[in-house]
Amino acid sequence: MTTVVPRSDFARDILHVYAIITWATVGIALVVGITLAWALMRFRDRPGAPPPVQTRGHTALEIAWTIAPALVLLVIALPTIQVIFRTQAAPGPGALEITVLGRQWWWEFRYPTLDVVTANELHVPAGRPVALRLDGPDVIHSFWVPQLGGKRDVVPGRRNRLTFTAEIPGEYRGQCAEFCGTSHANMGMRVIVDASDAFERWVAAQKAVPGESAGLAAEGKAIFTRSACVGCHTIRGVSTGALGPDLTTFGSRRTLAAGMLPNTVDVVTAWLKNPPALKPGAKMPPLGLTDDQARAVATYLTSLK
Ligand code: CUA
Fold this sequence. Notes:
This protein is of the alpha+beta class and 305 residues long. The protein has 2 domains: 1-41 and 60-207, Immunoglobulin-like; 216-302, Cupredoxins -  blue copper proteins (Immunoglobulin-like, Sandwich). 38% of the residues lie in helices and 22% in strands. The strands form 5 sheets. A 5-stranded mixed β-sheet has the order 3-2-1-5-8. It has a 3-stranded mixed β-sheet with strand order 4-10-9. A hairpin with a 2-residue loop joins strand 1 and strand 2 (106-111). Helix 1 (9-42) packs antiparallel against helix 2 (59-88), helix 4 (215-225) crosses helix 8 (291-302) and helix 6 packs across helix 8 (291-302). Bound molecules: dinuclear copper ion.
């Protein structure tokens, strides 16, 4: 994660502001340092020398050191305010709308115009503006993907906006940047910037109805549908819970638990046995599944692509 290799218009704007502030502070440091060095040399104590002339009250000097910092603040404030307004502006008509919900302790991403819902791995097309609406049902979080821009707070009920255009396909890590409880540090995310055809393929795959399960996966599906799972999780055509992540295409995600763990059958099995043991504070309780049951459900879930 770095802020100095920008991969979106927003991130580049922020780096530009950083650069202005950095060079301004370098200039100030030089002026102060050189003046200090000069004063130390010029007025150092010499044996037998009289004390230097004392200055008390100097109107011109006082006006100067009031105006100079005001000018510095102006130089920093103008571009900062410009960037804030530009990235908060209403998105253009071609922008892809995405609702981002910060939750304890994971991210939900909804694409209202595409009828797609996913979690923790946000796919966006390269070269097209995306207009994020930030909201959440519980506490304040902060959306931050350093190479794409941010941070912007996710305040329940406020619907903050964030618009950017990702430029280069790739995978970019993000992190909740506002302390939000026990697993704040584990509230990561990935943004996958796809070339536009790859994005279309991803959308099509997300909308596909999961096929029939067979073998161990079918066993896992049967356990899933008769367990508490269905109360919290949606799998299209199977269940409609809304407290936890939508699992319709769970197997297409590379990570589990908001980017914390690799999404493999072994890890998902351990997760199903006892989520809070892997992620402190996780709201999903241990379900009391046997090892075999947990493995069957994990096989089913990871088969959903
Ligand atoms: Cu969510 Cu910190």
